[in-house]
Structures are given as structure tokens and as C-alpha cells.
């Protein structure tokens, strides 16, 4: 009797422990699950990615907030990319980086030497790992501003050269002053005064910009701008695209590029990283050593477009009454195939107006056992054309079976209590074909007749089938059989797939765990 009471006490104690544990877990689940949901929204690990092979374009590079010990460099990219700057006082660079992918970039380079020229270049990589590196540029930090001396300096005597004047110039100035002092007449002194004033006015003038701006050398992604000035000055160009140009603003242009520290009479600036087939506004600027700046009028140029190029041109498949021609282009382009019956010289056209880089056009209605010649004509978005060399082929009996490719499966669970799945299978063939989908539960057929879906009735190259007979969390083996119009047959490789399992809640997992620990719960 005492033993029965003890067992009953143990059971009651365990039951209360279980009840308290479930209450704690449910509280944690309710409290923390929004955090998990929020995290999953912030970091969607299952988000689909699109293949990207093009690096980001770097533009609008600016040196901002330049001080004695640091500077800020900003730029823009045409897609989200990280931010990295190589820099050093020599062309072998150091590095500063921000891995966050953005389109508008700004990095601060700290702990620099004052009054020091630094080499730098911009590097940005998009989320697909494509990397773009800019040209090499130079900026110079400002000198350190020393505090004023506590004891004021004695100003130099009026009319005498300062200690900073070079010795040869000091001697020349002193000799000139002595000669002027020997001239007694007011007329002579007035003439000297006007001559000196004229020379001073000339020195104080801003550089005058000359040059033929119509002779800008232009490529698809660069422009070389040249000009001259009547006195030594630096070389800078301000630029903006047609859409970004602001003619009525104090700052009409988007970015500057050039050589801010050189002092020359003949100027040349090479602007890199431009977009093809784009109109740009630009203005040249030259600043003398006295910070007097000459500025040109606004001018424009348009970069060249990238001409389409044809490569990998192939007669991919020849049949009794058709042929398929495939090729690639370096830029998106529309295409026309012009083909000629060499027996009758009758010419026909077949084309596609969609802009793409991978092309495939099927020529139909051909004559059996006939010799044909074909040329490919492509046209880019700017209506610039390229024509291929001719290719020839002879129509012949089709003995080649279709090629099955791009097989893809996607399974989802039915909502509700029924534990069933829906699986979509898609694939492609290189010629119009009818296909049938076969499948079997498990990895081996073991002599049994496999299950199948009804055979397709229409000839096509894009195939889609839907299976609703698959069970969740089950392995299936499947394959595909296809026939073309001349009854050439092909069977694909065998493939396997695992259908998804129904997800269990945290509470289900906890109860299942307790059932394994306390077997008596199943009997209650």
C-alpha cells in the first residue's frame, strides 16, 4: 500500500514537472519567435539569386573634406557593391574597405601625413563577386596650420623683399629699387608705376582657356579632353550626364576629374568609367598657383556605343525540312537570318526582334536534300549593325534524337491535413518533341513496372508536367523519354529526388521528446 502511494506521488510530481516545462517552453516560443521571424525577414537565406557576370560601373569619383591628416572619397556604382580604396604615398597601395553593398559610396581615410600626395584607386565588387577597379588618381592633404606666434613678427621694411623671396630675386629687387631711386623726374616715375601696375594686373588675371573642344577623343567608356592656357595652371574637368546636368544650379556638374596639382600650359585629361552611347556635359577648369581659375563654357560629347560582335556561329542541327542556327553576341542585339536556296537562288528571312546575347533561330519549310547558304545580321540597341560570314548546309534525313536538357523539379506541400505534395517537373528539348515522364518510389525498380504520366500530345521544346501522387519525405527515381517528329527516340539519365517533409512545431518536438523519455505519457 505504501509503495502504491509512493509511486502515485512520483507520478504526480513528474506530471507537474512536465506541465511547468511545457509552460516555460511555450512562453519562450511566444516571446522569442517574433525575433526569429524578424531575423528571417532581414536575412532571407532562401532568396533566389540571379546569375550576374558583369562588374559594377564606377563613376562620380570625388575627393571631399580634405584636411591635413584625413580625406573622404566618394563615388557611385550602377548596382549595389562594396566599397574599397587602395591608397599610399607610392603606387603600391594600402587599403580601406566597407563590405556593405551600396550604390553611393563614401570612405574616410584617416591618419594621413599632412601636405603629402597620395595615390589611390577605387575598387567595388557586387554581391555576385564581379569586381571593378578604377584608374589611378592622386590627392594631396592640406598642410598643418601652425598656431600664431606669441611674439609678433617685425614686418619687413616697405619696398624690400621678404625672407621667403629666393636670393637671386632678392638681389634683382634691391638693384631695381636702387635704380628707381636714381630717377628724379615725375614723368619717369609715373611711367615705371604704370608699367609695374600693368605687370601686376597681368599676373592677377585668371588663366585664359583656349582649344578646339570639338576634337575631344571619344571611346565607348572614355573621353580624352585637351586644351591650352596662356599661363601655367592645373587641369580639371567637371562632368555630368544629360539627365544629371543642372544648368541653373551653382554646381551644374556631378563630378570632377583631372590633375589638381600640376601646373602646365598644355592640358590633357582622360575621363574613364563612362557609359556607352551616353551624352555628357563637361566644362574644363584651370587654376593658377595664385588660385585664380579660368573656366570654359559648357560643352557636350557622346560616347560611342559598343558594336555587336558575332561569335560561335554554328549550324546546330539539320533535318529534312529545317535547320537550327545558333550564335552569341557580345552585347544584347536583335537578329535576322537571311538564307538562300542555292538551287533556285530564292532568299528568305527569319528573325527575332528581342535583344539578347544568346541566339538560336530555326529555319523551317526547307527542301529535302538541298544546299543552302545563310548569313546572320545583328543590330544593337543603337541600331548599329554587324553581318556574319556565310555558312552553308545541306538538308538531310534526321537520324539524330532530340537532346533533353535543363531538367528541374520543384515540390511543395499541400496545405491542410492531407500529407501530400505537388511536384512540378520541367525540361527542354533542342527540337519539337513529345515526351513522357516515368517515376518509381525508391532507388531501384526491382523488375516492377514504373509509374508514368500520360505522354504529351503536342510537339514542343518547352515541357512541363505536374505530379500530385508523390508522398512527403519520400525518395523517388524518375526519367524522361522523348520522340521527335521523325520518331528518333531518346531516354534521359535516371534522376532522384526527395520530397519535402511536413514541418513540426516546437511544441510537437517537445512532446515527442517527452514521449521518448516518459513512455507512460503514451498510455495516459
Written overview of the protein:
- With 524 residues, the protein is an alpha+beta fold.
- The chain has six domains: 1-45; 58-140, Immunoglobulins (Immunoglobulin-like, Sandwich), CATH 2.60.40; 167-194, no CATH class; 209-302, Immunoglobulins (Immunoglobulin-like, Sandwich), CATH 2.60.40.10; 310-394, Sandwich (Immunoglobulin-like); 404-498, Sandwich (Immunoglobulin-like), CATH 2.60.40.
- 16% of the residues lie in helices and 44% in strands.
- It has four helices and 26 strands.
- The chain has helices spanning 2-42, 167-181, 186-203, 506-517, and strands at 58-64, 71-88, 96-109, 117-125, 131-133, 137-140, 209-210, 217-218, 223-241, 255-271, 279-287, 293-295, 299-302, 310-318, 322-341, 346-364, 371-379, 385-387, 391-394, 404-413, 421-441, 451-452, 460-467, 475-484, 489-491, 495-498.
- Strands 7, 8, 9, 10, 11, 12 and 13 form a seven-stranded antiparallel β-sheet that branches. Strands 20, 21, 22, 23, 24, 25 and 26 form a seven-stranded antiparallel β-sheet that branches. Strands 1, 2, 3, 4, 5 and 6 form a six-stranded antiparallel β-sheet that branches.
- The relative contact order is 0.07.
